[in-house]
Amino acid sequence: MREVLTYSRRGSRFTPRQAEAWAAHQADWVIPDEAVDRADFSLAERFGREAPLILEIGPGVGEATAVLAAARPDHNVLALEVWRPGIADSLWRVAEAGADNVRFCSVDAVWSLEHLIAPGGLAEIWTFFPDPWRKTKHRKRRLVNPANAALASSRLEPGGAWRLATDWADYADQMREVLDAEPTLEGGPVERWAERPVTRFERKGLDVDRDIADFCYRRTT
What is d(CA 123, CA 54) in angstroms, rounded to the nearest whole number? Predict the structure, then answer.
């Protein structure tokens, strides 16, 4: 059984626009949770092609997903999001952008890295504004920890990038400490990635004067 450690599910009620997008695109672009447990599951089959794979962990409502995926039509983008209304919002955004190279799934990111992605199978990982788990007692649930960093790095191809952003200063400190300590990664803080659009999560941080920290680490071996 999969353990849920790095997220909590929220409400699943759709707005009319979300319901319309779900009805139009869910069958083609959303991978059912139960599908990944089948012995014959194939990501390439779900995308309808073999192509370099990018993993986005927590796309939210797809603001960055749509823009970044549309700019990379030669890549497959697997977006892991557990909030169904967020997926529904993302569906109309990627459709509007013409980004038909995106597939969504609601399965836990750590389990997916372990079981769905082959070692060296990722060109990039995107993790923008992950849940900061602000309470001290909950910080153990943060995605970026030593074990998960080692796992994520093992799934990157040599030279593959893990791009991250957060508006929580102590999470930024944790990201840097953890990823600096991972021997198969090199990198650190970088200027804001120009290709990444300003999302609502980033705007919320800016509205309360939080600094945005961007990181890029690459697999070295």
Answer: 6
Check the annotation: does 10 bind a ligand.
Answer: no
Whether 35 contacts 103, CB under 8 Å? no
Mean pLDDT of the chain: 93
**Cβ partners under 8 Å of residue 220, min gap 6:** 158, 184, 185, 186
Q: Are 95 and 21 in contact (CB under 8 A)?
A: yes
The answer to whether 220 is annotated as binding is no
Burial profile 151-188: b = 16 or more Cβ within 10 angstroms, e = fewer: bbbbbbbeebbbbbbbbbeebbebbbebbeebebbebe
Report d(CA 7, CA 81) in Å as an integer. 10
3 assigned binding-site residue: no
State mean pLDDT over 43-71.
97
CA distance 108 to 96: 27
| pTM for the whole structure | 0.93
The β-bridge partners of 162 are 125, 217
Residues 151-194: pLDDT tens digits?
999 999 999 999 999 999 999 999 999 999 999 999 999 999 99
Instruction: Give me the active site residues, please.
Output: 131
3-state secondary structure of 94: helix
Q: Is 202 annotated as a binding residue?
A: yes
Crossing angle between the packed helical segments 169-181 and 146-155, to the nearest 10 degrees: 60
Answer whether residue 7 shows pLDDT above 80. Answer: no
